[in-house]
Request: fold
Amino acid sequence: MTAPAPRKRRLPAPAPEPAADAVLLPPGQASKTLMILGLLRSGSKHGYELHRVIVAHGTLYADFKKPTLYHLLHRLSLQGAIRENSESGARGPRGERLVYSLTAAGEALLFRILRGALASHDTSQTNFEVAVAFMGLLPAADAQAMLRRRLAVIRARRAEVVAEIESFAAHSHPARMAARVLAADHSLSIMDAEIAWADRAIRQLAGARSRARPAAPSRATRRARTAV
Reply:
């Protein structure tokens, strides 16, 4: 009597990449995550190369140290936003280095952070400044839409500040009012500058869209076509 053939062991199916919404951002690290994902979208890079490009951005990321970078890379890798691959030929005892590349979930996360940063009003400005650096990844129409949403948020906040000043003026001592007006005037000046910049950016993006469209044929050209 022959023994039954051993059953083939089924290998577990690879886990699907997590959705972008399932990737958790470390608190206060959205701008750094956006920088990493944006740089990886242009191609795979190893950690040293990523850090070199980040440092080249100047004072904006003076505090983006190597340990922070590698901690975020490891976290994003565990969450499926980036993929790690070993590459031989590096200096050192191991003779290899890790190369990072963007996954589909990571690309979705990149655009989620990018659109959110462009459309919101973050008083720290760091997220927004990084988002503007990568705004070219979006179609011009999408970038315009995000900036219009940002404008609406800033204008609504400006109206709130003005209303707060009027309410405060009606119930406060003149000496206290003077200091409060100076503080509010500072906030309003910043918001006015933001509004002026966003208006210019939207017009510039509109011009880029119109230049990208094919020019309408002239009247003479249309007549020549109809005559054929």
